[in-house]
TrEMBL record:
Residues 33-155 form the C-type lectin domain. The keyword Disulfide bond applies. It comes from Oppiella nova. Pfam families: Lectin_C. This is C-type lectin domain-containing protein. It comes from the Eukaryota. PANTHER family: MANNOSE, PHOSPHOLIPASE, LECTIN RECEPTOR RELATED. The keyword Cytoplasm does not apply. SUPFAM superfamilies: C-type lectin-like.
């Protein structure tokens, strides 16, 4: 298994762990994914923040912490809809100096936050964080005096039995093998291998914008000004540049009544043909202008790109 597959294995394993439901391991607590068991303490009366934390600890738990919008949504639903709480509820964050921290994890709150409008007020005596029950801002956070008495939510890690772990691992292994096979197929199906050439027509996006996951280099200069034609017929061999050519005046020749013949020098492209036209009273010369324009069909310049990485 290469390093990409190893990484994928680890990520998928972590992902699946998070998505395996934790029912049955939390008893009368509520399972959040397979991470936590949550309990809304609404039967022990409202408590000050420290007291709420102590009650959690007596239950081998801590006040709840929230790190994602999904976690918040689950908690909001659990507390205010399922348990129908109508009061403010402590969560496990408090302010130290200017910074809010998750109390038991001792890490700063964020980057996910869910402050109510205008919160935190950061008043000197408002150092603990509660969730609000009001419909307009249900689940939103507000800093509040830690001595205020609130309901509260405790969390603890789920404890898995070895049977659960084994069954999960077996299921994961089976799915991972299937996914690894799909990944292999996908890798083979990469649409643009390195070296792939892309012709960019006018008014279309550059491949660097269309497929930014690849590295592209403009290679127009390798083909500057050149038209393309299919090999065969009077075309040059594959890959060889055939210099331009067009029918044009190259020599002038004349014969007069006496049989006198004269012939011009070879006429350079874009040059003049000079030819003597009379032996007596002359000589006289005609000059013929030869144009120096390439023969070309109507055309529009394009760009060529090559994928380099
Ligand atoms: Ca406040």
């Amino acid at each position: 298994m290469n390093s990409l597959n190893t990484l994928l294995f680890a990520l998928l394993f972590a992902y699946k762990l998070c998505h395996t439901r934790g029912e049955g391991v939390c008893g009368d607590w509520d399972a959040y994914r397979d991470e936590k068991c949550l309990y809304v303490f609404d039967g022990v009366g409202q408590q000050a923040y420290d007291s709420a934390q102590a009650i959690c600890e007596n239950n081998s738990a801590t006040l709840v912490t929230i790190h994602t919008a999904e976690e918040q949504a689950f908690l909001t639903q659990l507390v205010f809809e399922k348990r129908k709480v109508v009061d403010d509820v402590w969560i496990g964050a408090h302010r130290v100096g200017d910074v809010f921290k998750w109390t038991t994890e001792n890490v700063d709150v964020g980057p996910y936050t869910n402050w109510a409008k205008g919160m935190p007020t950061n008043l000197t005596n408002e150092r603990c964080v509660q969730m609000l029950p009001k419909t307009s801002e249900v689940g939103k956070w507000d800093d509040e005096n830690c001595t205020k008495r609130n309901l509260f939510v405790c969390q603890k890690l789920q404890k898995w039995t070895t049977d659960m772990i084994q069954q999960t691992l077996l299921n994961e292994r089976k799915q991972l093998l299937e996914i690894a096979a799909e990944l292999e197929a996908l890798k083979k199906a990469t649409p643009f291998p390195i070296g792939f050439t892309y012709a960019q027509l006018p008014n279309t996006k550059e491949p660097t914008a269309l497929w930014p996951q690849y590295t592209w280099k403009e290679t127009s200069a390798d083909h500057a000004g050149v038209f393309f034609r299919v090999v065969g017929g009077t075309a040059a061999p594959f890959g060889q540049v055939q210099e331009e050519a067009s029918p044009r005046l190259t020599t002038m020749e004349m014969t007069d009544a006496t049989g006198y013949k004269d012939k011009s020098d070879p006429i350079a492209k874009g040059g003049f043909a000079k030819l003597k036209v009379g032996a007596t009273g002359g000589p006289w010369y005609w000059q013929f202008d030869v144009s120096n324009v390439e023969v070309r069909p109507k055309n529009q310049a394009i760009r060529i790109w090559t994928r380099t990485a």
